[in-house]
Amino acid sequence: MKPFQYLRPKTIAEAISMAADYPEAQYIAGGTNLVDLMKRGIASPSKLIDINHLPLKKIEHRYDRLRIGALALNSDVAKNKSVLSRQPLLAQALLAGASGQLRNMATVGGNLLQRTRCSYFYDLALPCNKRKPGSGCGAEAGVNRTHAIFFAGNGFGGNEKSSCIAVHPSDMCVALTALDTEVVINGTSGERRVPFKDFHRLSTLQPELDTNLQPGELVTAIEVTDNAFAQHSHYLKVRDRASYAFALVSVAAALQMDGGRIWDARMALGGVAHKPWRYWAIDLMLRGQAPSEKLFREVAEHEMQSAKATTQNAFKIKLTSNAIVAALKAATGIS
Amino acid sequence: MKRQSLDNPSDTSLSRVDGAVKVTGAATYSAEYAIPGLVHAVLVTSTIAKGSITAIDSREAEAVPGVLAVISHLNAITVPGWPAKKLPAERVAAGTALRVFYDPLIYFDGQPVAMVVAATHEQAVHAASLVRVTYQQEAHQTHFEKNIGQAGIPQNVQRAKNSPFQDYERGDASALRNADVRIEAEYTIPTQHHQPLEPHAIIAVWEAEDKLTVYDKNQGVKSAQGQLAQAFKLPRENVQVVATYIGGAFGSGIRVWPHTMAAVMAAKQLKRPVKLVLGREQMFTSVGYRPYTKQKISIGAAKDGRLAGIVHEGTGQTSMYEEHLERTVLASRALYACPHVATRYRLLPLDVNTPTWMRGPGDATGMFALESAMDELAYALKTDPLEFRLKNYAESDPERNLPWSAKSLRECYELGAEKIGWKNRLPEPRSVRRNGMLLGYGMASSLYGFHRHPSRARAVMHADGSVIVQSATMDIGPGTGTAMTRIATKVLGVNAKKVRFDLGHSALPDAPGQNGSSTIPSVGSAVHVACEALKSKLVTLAGEMSEKFRPGAEVVARNGKIFSSADDKDGLSYTDILKHHRLNELEVTEASKSGAERDQYSMYSFGCHFVEVEVDPLTGEVRVTRVVTCADVGAIINYKTARSQSIGGVVGGIGMALMEHSEMDHRFGRYVTTDFASYHIPVHADVPSIEVYYIDKPDVQANPIGSKGLGEIAIVGVAGAIANAVFHATGKRVRELPITPDKLI
């Protein structure tokens, strides 16, 4: 770990101004990912701006939305009454992630900004376009069993200087992608809001960038708009062990049902792309339909038509398809 | 020697004698000794798999505040026990342990190439990241499957006619061709790493120019003492090795590894105590692993279910500089009554570091294949897998043509079957669901050879009635001190609180390292005979005080007193005996080892595992939902710690079966799963209810305590039982571990 300077701003404004003054500085909240990255030499900020004590922990419901402060702990969000009653999908996704100890440290803002767990990204001796732009993608012809199957414009590679087949590791972000979420961001020029779907990036051209956050900007909250999915939402996570493992594939399914039919449907997939993958067409395919395994299978396979395997992860196409079916069955309660 | 066994202790077993110091953090582990003047070392490891170092630029690293030295082959001290360096450097032939910082040659990716020593750990870590090493790279071969054609009979085996790894045939294995039912299949076990939670660590202290003390995580202080004394050409007693507490090892600490030498060399060079703790990623290339192994089994039976023949071939990987051999194919010779058996064992040297023994070495690997094949053959015969095993039960050792010293495997099978409810199992695969999950049951046998090495123990009775028992044995987790305390209390009839057992220091009486399930059989016997000898000495002294204890008198010991068996009252306390004779203490040291019984009997520990699994039909996720494990290891010394050991073995088996897999990118010859996020071991959610049962019948031929080893059979067979249960649940036979969802959807 490279020596660094520790800074402790008193206010949000001071934090933002520190970040503006020191381009090599990084904010630190729970540190559950950044500390690992620093230990492995992947991140080497000259200054750490500790924001843990800033007043960004609040979880509150106002008007038509749930606002969750960026420093709210993953564990606190997962057990919050408003979250459980209004957005149970979010609580399920949070509890599917990491371990109890990590959720007690990790914040919502940090969860949005965690970096991929691709082994090539983590090893300084191996090529990685995300860590070292232009060095090549080690995973593309290497060990890629857990890597992406969905890409921008239905393709990848073709440019060895910029390709990246890493996946986004978060569970929480998969649920937030399925829901109507906005990210609240503060910077030197004030506050801005970004729809969740536009917060993370696909790997096209600049895989070193995970998000559209500008240098020095600080995520201060997320806001989830009320919906009618609480009765019929399900987060399914498929992994290599029962807990404390990143998803091979995950599915966040949120449905609104009435009279035995589906009237609104949202879905996002995790572990399959550089960012949580929204299945946009699902609403069109399910609206007005009665749930059945046959229907769900058609729906699953429709989206998988645009999936593309690399050398070791062809199984993920079938696994994702099966996981979509399983999640929809669970969300609709059919057996 | 009088043979006797201990009573069934299941109702009165001891809690861990070191439990309190471990859970309160008071136990001192290797890296935790506060040594004045201690400095910190961090390794720099190679990023190529084969070639040589052309330059090391350490200027930037040396400029970091606090850095004392950057040590490499360019400036390391000469180790007196190593041969003079050759110029130019020559690659060693197989059979030479890696000499760290000796020459510029690279044998595997992750090999130590330099070491930074600094005043603080943080300074050393940072400086290590600044050392620039340049290499001349050579083409490397790390891919097992692509190179399997290069596998051959190990040189060690070619040289040793009596090696157990020689090709073996009994009967005529070609008889298999005529078997009514025959199957043939290949089985693959990937490289798996021990990865104990405590990383390997050492503090090396040169007390004088010719006196060395190391606080080192290892599994054998005596063996480490010998190896270090040899390397530095010192009298044995000038080297002391301390390893009192160990946070798991599973075989990774059986030998002295290059990093240990590196720390000792640095301490000598800098004349400062040096601490070196391996990083988690360095644990993948520094302390061995269970080798990637490919096996082929041809097995056949007659329609009546009697085995017609077994041909078991195995090939394991090893390094270019050492041959690591293990028992992969050997269980197939001894486990079943089969007239025609052939085994062949080969090694494939690759540009990797040397593998080593990992819990159940060879047998865990081989029994996965054998017990999978037995299960598959049972289905082919339309026979119950358990009945099939019973039909081929070996009443004596078919390999050595000797009677078993004791064997209660049949009782294990019966007990396990009853507890899991085997008779209610529907034979048809993929026929039962529970809560939407595919439900399956599987079983497998377990066996492991009996290992008893010469051991010594000292027992001292003090004037206050307290007892100290000592032996240079180890505790890598099973609770050695607790079991030995138990033996001492049983013999001497004293309360466990009065007994202290010392281990993990090379100055103590000789004992083997903790490996091969040998500690209880070896050291337990020595402790038993030492305590018996101490008791006789006390009885002799008592005989001078009272008629009742004259020579020849039968005596019972309890509550710190001895009683005459004749009247069983008015006992004489140990404290009174010592007081009467004006003794502050009374000491004996005794040795214990195997005798002629080893040639008269075949000795094994036996066991079996019954497993229930649920498999998600859509996602292919396997969850082990219940395990019943039964063991026949002779007498159980301390039920509570034995049970923990069995549970630990099963958990290791779950990891082996379902998740553990060290994956290498062969383009670079480098592991890419070098942390716990990518190298999965079971977490609590993966561990179901594990029920442990023992037959607890003393093996009176084995040793004075009638007890055989438990550590290995706890894991041997578990992966096979799980794979068999997965087949029963899904109808899919997975022959390549680990059984991950991709293999089942």
From TrEMBL, chain A:
<dbReference type="InterPro" id="IPR005107">
    <property type="entry name" value="CO_DH_flav_C"/>
</dbReference>
<feature type="domain" description="FAD-binding PCMH-type">
    <location>
        <begin position="1"/>
        <end position="229"/>
    </location>
</feature>
<dbReference type="GO" id="GO:0016491">
    <property type="term" value="F:oxidoreductase activity"/>
</dbReference>
<dbReference type="GO" id="GO:0071949">
    <property type="term" value="F:FAD binding"/>
</dbReference>
<dbReference type="Pfam" id="PF00941">
    <property type="entry name" value="FAD_binding_5"/>
</dbReference>
<dbReference type="InterPro" id="IPR016167">
    <property type="entry name" value="FAD-bd_PCMH_sub1"/>
</dbReference>
<dbReference type="InterPro" id="IPR036683">
    <property type="entry name" value="CO_DH_flav_C_dom_sf"/>
</dbReference>
<dbReference type="InterPro" id="IPR002346">
    <property type="entry name" value="Mopterin_DH_FAD-bd"/>
</dbReference>
<keyword id="KW-0274">FAD</keyword>
<dbReference type="InterPro" id="IPR016166">
    <property type="entry name" value="FAD-bd_PCMH"/>
</dbReference>
<dbReference type="InterPro" id="IPR016169">
    <property type="entry name" value="FAD-bd_PCMH_sub2"/>
</dbReference>
<protein>
    <submittedName>
        <fullName>Xanthine dehydrogenase YagS FAD-binding subunit</fullName>
    </submittedName>
</protein>
<keyword id="KW-0285">Flavoprotein</keyword>
<dbReference type="InterPro" id="IPR051312">
    <property type="entry name" value="Diverse_Substr_Oxidored"/>
</dbReference>
<dbReference type="Pfam" id="PF03450">
    <property type="entry name" value="CO_deh_flav_C"/>
</dbReference>
<dbReference type="InterPro" id="IPR036318">
    <property type="entry name" value="FAD-bd_PCMH-like_sf"/>
</dbReference>
From TrEMBL, chain B:
<dbReference type="GO" id="GO:0016491">
    <property type="term" value="F:oxidoreductase activity"/>
</dbReference>
<dbReference type="InterPro" id="IPR008274">
    <property type="entry name" value="AldOxase/xan_DH_MoCoBD1"/>
</dbReference>
<dbReference type="InterPro" id="IPR046867">
    <property type="entry name" value="AldOxase/xan_DH_MoCoBD2"/>
</dbReference>
<dbReference type="GO" id="GO:0005506">
    <property type="term" value="F:iron ion binding"/>
</dbReference>
<dbReference type="Pfam" id="PF01315">
    <property type="entry name" value="Ald_Xan_dh_C"/>
</dbReference>
<dbReference type="InterPro" id="IPR036856">
    <property type="entry name" value="Ald_Oxase/Xan_DH_a/b_sf"/>
</dbReference>
<protein>
    <submittedName>
        <fullName>Xanthine dehydrogenase YagR molybdenum-binding subunit</fullName>
    </submittedName>
</protein>
<dbReference type="InterPro" id="IPR037165">
    <property type="entry name" value="AldOxase/xan_DH_Mopterin-bd_sf"/>
</dbReference>
<dbReference type="Pfam" id="PF02738">
    <property type="entry name" value="MoCoBD_1"/>
</dbReference>
<feature type="domain" description="Aldehyde oxidase/xanthine dehydrogenase a/b hammerhead">
    <location>
        <begin position="24"/>
        <end position="139"/>
    </location>
</feature>
<dbReference type="InterPro" id="IPR000674">
    <property type="entry name" value="Ald_Oxase/Xan_DH_a/b"/>
</dbReference>
<dbReference type="Pfam" id="PF20256">
    <property type="entry name" value="MoCoBD_2"/>
</dbReference>
<dbReference type="InterPro" id="IPR016208">
    <property type="entry name" value="Ald_Oxase/xanthine_DH-like"/>
</dbReference>
